[in-house]
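User: I'm preparing a small set of examples for a lab meeting where we compare how different chains pack in three dimensions. I only have the primary sequence for this one, and I'd like the structure in token form so I can line it up with the others. Please keep the answer compact; I'll paste it straight into my notes.
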Amino acid sequence: MEPAGSEHRGAVRELRLHLVTWNVGTASPPPDVTSLLQLNSLGPTMDMYVIGLQEVNSRITNFLSDLAFDDPWSIFFMTVLSPLGYIKLSSVRMQGLLLLVFVKHVHLPFIRDIHTHYTRTGLYGYWGNKGGVTVRMSLYGHTICFMNCHLPAHMENTEQRLDDFEKILEMQFEGENIPSTLDHDVLFWFGDLNFRIADYGIHFVRESINNKRYNLLWEKDQLNMAKKKEAFLQEFIEGPLQFKPTYKFDLYSDVYDTSEKKRKPAWTDRILWRVKNLCQHASKEGEFSEEEQTISVTLNNYISHMSYGISDHKPVTGTFGLELKPLLSDPLITLNPEGEWSAEHDVLISYSAVPEFPSSAWDWIGLFKVAFRHVNDYVTYAWVEDDEISSNKDSKQVYMSAAEIPDMGGEFLLCYYSNNLQSIVGISQPFQIQPNRTLIEKDLTQEENSWMQKPDNLESLDEF
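Assistant: Understood. Below is the structure token output for the 464-residue chain.
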């Protein structure tokens, strides 16, 4: 299956990634996020959306209900993105910190080893109001890690911010053979990092912003200053800050803080990245061979979105091109519906696996609507072993009962879920399920009968 929305030059594939960071200040989702997600962009569509939020409402009543069900922000982004062909691949939440990863269906068989983690740094590591939430995965064989952080506030806490980030970097994923955060091929670090503009007074800062002379403030940005001194930060890359500082605004306005506190504007909301092979290259002498570089990251734009006013922070987005040489070219599972599908009869699925596939009795094949939201959003499913009806060295067949097939029909697809790999490892092309003709005829007959049985008393109304 050829992933759509990706470009090819020889063996190289370019994937488009849109990354959002936003401190939402406990607010509910806004009415529209078209510009935030660049859904009206004239260019090719995104392959992946990564959305990092801070200060999601985590009052105890909200948090308990969110543990049982998806939180309002997750539901909101799923509602926007699933009709466009994106599935929520993974998510992780720690109190007010939320990280969501959405991906186009076609990439699912090539994304494996998905793991999440969270690190508390608030109240000496016992409280999760500050810290980091992380999702990592193997993407076409390359290891990618996304880290959404909310670091301590206030001008004087630069060292605490750096200490907390170092602690978050030291976290380890559970599982075998999973690299540490800094050993991933690409690491994205973003969030409300809370670094401020040092030394300059509020009037100079605001005047520089009003005149769009942002470069006058860069050298006193605490993160820029720390990057020059701290070795572990020097490997992180950031685009130029060519947008207004994104904190602190009066709600529903683009006016900086007019309260008594009059907070000095700051670029608190940031997106950085680190490419492992570039770091290794920098530590060696000699030129780095282009043939050795199997993945590279290009920043296409780095902007804030001033039109969103639900919070005292403005959201920031980075749009990236990930150019990589796929280390995986074939899905582990290839599957297809057999024959015409309808709820009038049992239906068959055929699938084949590559020889090295680690199958399990707990593997299952799900039937999904084309605009499904996440892996558990299936209509029905079949166990690959319990519901198997035939098997040979090339392929196997599994059945689904007619009673489980939607009567109204429509457009669907099939996904094979691996219990050992904890991910979807095969996906079919979309296909049509025919409406249940027997049911439709029955409904028509009942409708005709109900008309015939209506009391013939309408004419008597004319006598009054």
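A couple of notes for your slides: The first helix runs from residue 60 to 68. Residues 1-10, 285-291, 457-464 have pLDDT under 50 and may be disordered.

User: Perfect, thanks.
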